[in-house]
Amino acid sequence: QVQLVESGGGLVQAGGSLRLSCAASGRTVNTLPMGWVRQAPGGEREFVAAITWDGGSTHYAESVKGRFTISRDNAKNTVYLQMNSLKPEDTAVYYCAADRWNRIVAVTTDYWGQGTQVTVSS
Predict the structure, then answer these.
(1) Are 96 and 113 in contact (CB under 8 A)?
(2) CB-based burial, 49-88: b 16+ in 10 Å, e otherwise
(3) Within a 10 A sphere around the Cβ of 106, how many other Cβ atoms?
(4) Is the CB of residue 91 less than 8 Å from the CB of residue 40?
(5) Residue 112 has pLDDT above 90, yes or no
(6) pLDDT, the chain, mean
(7) Of 76, 72, 77, 100, whose CA–CA distance to 26 is shortest?
């Protein structure tokens, strides 16, 4: 069983930055890919970014490529999402996920945190 707790959300103006953190616990978490998905008001959850267990590979949604950076620190059991050049359309609840790679990218994982709200004002 994996437990995930997100933090770092907030209100920011367009063009600003935020860094989200996800603290993970569970005996196998450091062997799992991790990622971020988001859900805008009235929308479905969509993939944002994923990272392999060792941080060696990453993958991003086209909408955030070049603006967001995912990283992880396995010593701290934490994954991060650095978000720069934020846009109003990035407004969403951001969720951390830990699962098989394809399940994160396809947003079919069963392991979610509680989410953290990111609001970008224009």
Answers:
(1) yes
(2) bbbebeeeebbbbeebeeebbbebeeeebbbbbebeebee
(3) 11
(4) yes
(5) no
(6) 95
(7) 77
